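Feature request, filed as a ticket because there's no other form

It would be nice if the structure record came with a short human-readable summary line next to the tokens. Right now we just get the raw output. Example of a typical job, pasted below so the devs can see what we mean:
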Amino acid sequence: MSNFCPNIWPEEPVPNKVKTCDKCGLIEHGSRMIWGEGNPNARIMVILDNPGAREDRDGNPFVCGTRQTLQKAASKVGFRTDDLYVTYILKRKPTRAYDKEKTREICMMHLDDQLQEKKPAFILCLGNVAVQSFFQDEEAEVKSLRGTMHNIRGMKTTVAYHPLAVRRRPNLWSLFLDDWQYLANHFHK
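Raw output as currently delivered:
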């Protein structure tokens, strides 16, 4: 088993054609667009709701709690950095109120482009927002879908709690780890 030390994974450059996309309105929030991180050619695509914080207030890069928890679980079940590519429903971190449903719907076009280009073997959706957006079902919930492989958009997809939920509720850690192990078992078949 390889050992993941929490670290900053390399970002995939944002394609030039979408760098200034303003369709969803998040460009007005002042956060930069983050296309994805990790290995862009990985067989596993992990989908989060948004990129969250990658820099502190002074612009210095750091590994946020979400990424620390994600990397710790991945390491525990034997994944290497090269096995994973992390991307998001929203490509910019929201910094104030916004029309969540409309924005997610608009931003899914970018994720659809990534899926067509990358064609991952597996998808892991983390958290209800990612699950509802990716499954295109506002009633979908992690707690009822976890532990199963689903065929969503023609791709093998499984789900787990959001790493931030796991940090806030440590009793979810064992379930989170079980879900990562479930994915690892399918990945190594």
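Something like this underneath would help us a lot:
The mean pLDDT is 95.
The CA atoms of residues 99 and 182 lie 34 Å apart.
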